[in-house]
Amino acid sequence: MTERFDISRETLLSGELSPHLQAAQDSGLIQLLTDEEREATRHALLERHTPSDDIFVFGFGSLMWNPACEVAGFHPALVRGWHRRFNLWTHLGRGTPELPGLTLGLEAGGSCRGMALCIEAGKVDSETEIIWRREMIAGAYIPIWVQADLGDRTVPAVSFAINPDYYRYGHRVPFNVQAHHIGCAEGPLGPCIEYLENTVTVLETMGLRRGPMHDLLKAAQKERRKHGAGATG
Questions:
Q1: How far apart are CA 173 and CA 152, in angstroms?
Q2: What pLDDT is attached to residue 231?
Q3: At what angle do helices 175-184 and 192-205 cross, to 10 degrees?
Q4: Residue 135 catalytic?
Q5: Range 10-18, long-range pairs (CB < 8 A, 24+ positions)
Q6: Which domains are assigned to the chain?
Q7: Upper half-sphere CA count for residue 170 (Cβ side, 13 Å)
């Protein structure tokens, strides 16, 4: 197993991940966005944001438990018109080419409960740059605006929808296939099941004790016990 590394503010800013990502691109595992391409998407989205205002970012997966940026507050939120799904194959972070993992992306339809991360107005530029370095490595996601219902108010929030044209997009991956890959795949960021476990943990702190993510976790845990960590096939 490749030595484990973590996504943090420091690793994102230092360029520590760059050699790993470059090696992955050289081997054909990923097609990286250039710095210019990534920043162009950020500036285009932020044209709708008033510079004197705080900004919210809607996290539905790992942004809820490892945003890697400075957050002024976390607010349980409901977004309508979008739902989370394990729809992005990862051959690098939490998987391998032999046994890829799966991570979450937003897809149109339904609703999604997650966390709205509040970033202070004076830090919007620096902290959204960190988020873009984290989320917009390649072309897997499309940055979007959503309406996040915080209970006492509704706020516009930045989030990330899956790009259905991306070559590692998993369109409606069958439940049993999701469970197997999530339960058994591992990569430099750790076991894929850890990603799901952490997501479920945050959902439970919000009072969500059962749902699709819980059902998938039970099935993935069963697959992990059945095949063992790092299983193939």
A1: 36
A2: 46
A3: 110
A4: yes
A5: 12/68, 12/130, 12/133, 12/134, 13/130, 13/133
A6: 9-226 (3.10.490.10)
A7: 21
Distance CA 8, CA 13 (A): 9
Positions of E strands within 94-179: 101-119, 141-149, 154-162
pLDDT score, position 232: 42
Bridging pattern class, strands 190-191 and 154-162: unpaired
Q: Which of 220 and 5 is assigned the larger pLDDT?
A: 220
Provide the percentage of residues in the chain whose pLDDT is more than 90.
Answer: 82
> Three-state DSSP class for 142?
strand
Q: What is the mean pLDDT of residues 108-137?
A: 97
CB crowding 110-136: b at 16 or more within 10 Å, else e: eebbbbbbbbeeebbeebbbbbbbbbb
Residue among 77, 68, 45 nearest 119 (CA): 68
Q: Exactly one of 107, 127, 135, 223 is catalytic; which is it? A: 135
Backbone angles phi, psi at 78, to 5 degrees: -120, 130
How many other C-beta atoms can be found within 10 angstroms of the C-beta atom of residue 83?
A: 16
Q: Which of 119, 125, 93 shows the shortest CA–CA distance to 7?
A: 93
> Torsions phi, psi of 111, nearest 5?
-150, 170
pTM: 0.91
Describe the chain by its helix, strand, coil percentages, rounded to 5: 35, 30, 35
Closest residue by Cα to residue 32 from 139, 135, 128: 139
